[in-house]
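Input record, target 12 of the design panel.
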């Protein structure tokens, strides 16, 4: 009897094992690779006309501003700031009887802080930066109320320059593919005659600019800590 009971138990065990199904583990689904996000910013090229008093402490005559052309570029603008660089070349003027055949030019770099209008294609922005201003003219020494003859030879061509701090406002409006730009700047510097800081120039400019979309540069790794914790992000 015990023999039959053992055979029956073995039969039941093998029957149960036969009914157990073994499943292979499922492979995890491969997620599609995400494409890296491509970030763009703005690079604009502009040209216009400009008007300036050139050298306020020397240009004492009224309505004697110089007119010229200016070219410039802007970079950035997707956020609240962008950078600009400009060059101004002015036509020749006279400040009779002290200065004749004056030629002037200005190189400048500025930071612009952008404020956008929700329901308009316009932007207004404060401007701050630095400029290098060059002045060349024939100095006669007549009516030299600044006593510049102590510094420059009389009846000679004088080359001088001064470094200024720029402060101003700008306005731009989108017109189709281009933007109309209006800017006003004051340039503060040191007067060569008395050595005091004062307003040296007042400048207006009006022009058109065309903006291109360009790729942002990758993160710069020039400035890092010894543990590489602080990468410098370039906007």
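The sequence produced for target 12 reads:
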């Amino acid at each position: 009897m015990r023999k039959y009971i053992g055979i029956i138990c073995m039969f039941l065990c093998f029957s149960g094992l036969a009914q157990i199904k073994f499943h292979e583990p499922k492979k995890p689904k491969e997620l599609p690779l995400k494409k890296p996000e491509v970030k763009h910013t703005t690079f604009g090229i502009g040209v216009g006309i400009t008007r300036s008093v050139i050298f306020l402490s020397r240009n004492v005559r009224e309505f004697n501003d110089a007119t010229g052309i200016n070219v410039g570029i802007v970079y950035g603008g997707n956020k609240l700031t962008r950078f600009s660089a400009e060059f101004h070349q002015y036509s020749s003027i006279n400040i009779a009887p002290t200065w004749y055949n004056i030629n002037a030019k200005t190189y400048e770099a500025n930071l612009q802080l952008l404020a956008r209008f929700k329901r308009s294609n316009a932007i207004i922005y404060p401007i701050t930066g630095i400029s290098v201003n060059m002045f060349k003219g024939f100095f006669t020494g007549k009516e030299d109320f600044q006593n510049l003859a102590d510094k420059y030879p009389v009846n000679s061509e004088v080359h001088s320059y001064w470094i200024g701090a720029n402060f101003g406002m700008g306005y731009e409006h989108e017109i189709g593919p281009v933007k109309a730009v209006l800017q006003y700047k004051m340039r503060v510097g040191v007067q060569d005659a008395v050595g005091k800081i004062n307003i040296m120039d007042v400048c207006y400019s009006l022009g058109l600019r065309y903006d291109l979309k360009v790729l942002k540069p990758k993160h710069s790794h020039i400035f890092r800590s010894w543990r590489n914790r602080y990468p410098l992000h370039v906007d």
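The chain has one helix and ten strands.
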